[in-house]
Amino acid sequence: MRTDMYINGKWTGGGGTTFPTHNPANGEIIAELPEATASDVDTAVESARAAFGSPEWAGLLPSQRARLLFKAADLLEERAAEFARLETTDQGQPLAISAGFSVPNAVEHLRYYAGWTTKITGVTTPLSVPDVDHRTRREPLGVCGLITPWNFPLMILVWKLAPALATGNAVVVKPAEQTPLTALLLAEVLDQAGFPPGVVNVVTGGPEAGKALVRHPGVAKISFTGSTAVGREIGAEAGRALKKVSLELGGKAPSIIAADADIDAVIEGNLMSGLLNSGQVCAAATRFYVDSSRADEFAEKMAGAAGSMQLGPGLDESTQLGPVASLEQLEQIVRYVDIGKSEGAQLLTGGSRAEGHLADGYFFQPTVFGGVSQDMRIAREEIFGPVLTVLPYDDPEELAPRANDTEYGLAAYVWSRDIGTANRLAHQVKAGTVWINMPPLLDAGAPWGGMKSSGSGREMGWDAIEAFTEVKSIWTNLA
Fold this sequence. Notes:
Layout: E1 5-7, E2 10-12, E3 18-22, E4 29-34, H1 38-52, H2 55-58, H3 62-78, H4 80-91, H5 95-116, E5 132-140, E6 143-147, H6 153-166, E7 170-174, H7 181-193, E8 200-202, H8 207-215, E9 221-225, H9 228-240, E10 244-248, E11 253-257, H10 263-275, E12 285-291, H11 295-307, H12 327-343, E13 346-349, E14 367-370, H13 377-380, E15 387-393, H14 399-403, E16 408-409, E17 411-415, H15 419-428, E18 433-436, E19 451-452, E20 455-456, H16 461-467, E21 469-477
Parallel strand pairs: 6-7, 6-9, 7-8, 9-10, 11-12, 11-17, 12-15, 14-15, 17-18
Antiparallel strand pairs: 1-2, 3-4, 5-21, 10-20, 13-14, 16-19
Helix pairs in contact: 1-8, 3-5, 3-7, 4-5, 5-6, 10-11
């Protein structure tokens, strides 16, 4: 297990103190890692700056960068089981998620962006100026700071890393302090793949390390995934420095269930979207708008399905719902459930920490509230845990306004047998992604990001190529 930082192609303990990372299934310390100092971050950034302009990296042909990314994907795939177990141990997600979704998705992204390296083109422009040729080219930005979250540590890191490297940038990665281990293991894979020293650097630590990276004058861009509150601070800091920034932030996704929807299919799809990774998904469906004539039926079936899920350690292959990632997050969920009870919502299942042999871990029972109103805090604020809310409605015309009555706009779900109704609602809802009659799926080719307080910018697809490049205009006198 790698526990040192990776800077300029070498493993280092840094110059500061250490911090622990815990196994959320039992609360035990897995490892102690170095807390990066401002000096450590500066060394990493300067290493990345030197690598960015070096012949070993800047002089590579696009096809040579592609081969490095393809090699990294192959190595990651060969070690998939190792990565999945480490991700589950450090983050808590069941092996069915880490091995079946997180690691394969990371492999897919490396290969997808390996393919883009040879296809990043500019345009020629017809100008109304005689004897002049005009063309554009896309160029890398420089050093990019990648600050990643604790809910899908490996996968979301690769969402940023793959396009950043495909476009020729150098990077400094700061993983979440709760879940740093797979980022360090990935650095080992990239080293084995042959990336030149300094192209990829990983510093570990908490908020101070992140602040040092955001504020460093040698960083050209920050890509951050995390809470809206922290994203606002990063956006303000980057704005003052006129530094490029991408933010993928919180969510409170509505699931709009029309009166004609197949309730049983809706239950299955929404259970997956609401409780995947113990609800620690920024696109999780947490607000279910259900026709009042069917709201009780839906709430009872949802509560029954949620309450029957197998709660346990992620390394147990029978587990359907693992622990939440940290004690801090568990305590936040407990607070919100208490708020929901005090607001008068009807607790249908769950509502407390797991007991017995799971008591030492960060386990919370899947929880469903019925009879929830629009103004309740549990319906408006991001909980980021296995807590679902059912909100009845009477008039279909109120659906889009109520779904949009939130500061967030990351994702939404629409369920209806009438495809016209479903698409009209999809157009009306203010969200970066809308899924119609399906649970959440992601693909490297489809752009991902939010509106309003859910962030700015997009990841995946061509959008990520644009996010890690800038356009240069070149004029040539032909006379």
